[in-house]
Specification:
single chain; mainly alpha; 2 strands; about 10% strand
Length: about 160
């Protein structure tokens, strides 16, 4: 099954109609790449973001991870269980409260995250290889800005 290419969209449609369509195509294609392997080490989005968060910020409890990722604690608990079972995440004692535990990236988790991150970066390099560097930078900056706007929107909606 093919999806209409960006070049084939109706450029007379309002930009926001085009944008919502392109985002839907983007999400579908990202999932296709992930599930097909595409030469990449497969790791679903939730697992990737959890491992990345632990690497960047160190051990954390479930509540802190949930807040940082914008999900509820039960979701983090479900998502982290297979990571613990796979040896990618471990439980460590909280130094501030010896009764509490925190989740931490294991050496295996660090290696797996690096492998997946490198594969994804290589794919991004391949997909944008014929783009001028300034367009690559602009795309990254705009995508980051869009993600930030979505995060702010979600926070505002949850606050209402």
């Amino acid at each position: 099954m093919t999806t209409t290419s960006p070049q084939a969209t109706d450029r007379t449609e309002p930009v926001h109609t085009q944008l919502q369509y392109q985002l839907a195509v983007f999400a579908r294609r990202m999932e296709q790449v992930r599930t097909s392997g595409g030469g990449l080490a497969a790791l679903d989005r939730a697992a990737y973001l959890l491992l990345d968060r632990l690497e960047r910020h160190g051990p954390a409890n479930v509540k802190a991870l949930a807040e940082a990722l914008g999900v509820d604690s039960s979701t983090v608990t479900r998502q982290v269980a297979p990571l613990v079972a796979a040896g990618l995440v471990g439980r460590v004692q909280d130094p501030a409260d010896r009764r509490a535990v925190r989740l931490a990236l294991t050496p295996g988790g660090t290696g797996r995250l690096a492998e997946v991150r490198d594969g994804r970066a290589e794919l991004a390099r391949r997909l944008t290889a014929d783009w001028p560097p300034e367009e690559q930078q602009a795309f990254c900056a705009l995508l980051a800005r869009f993600n930030h706007a979505m995060e702010s929107y979600t926070a505002d909606q949850q606050g209402q």
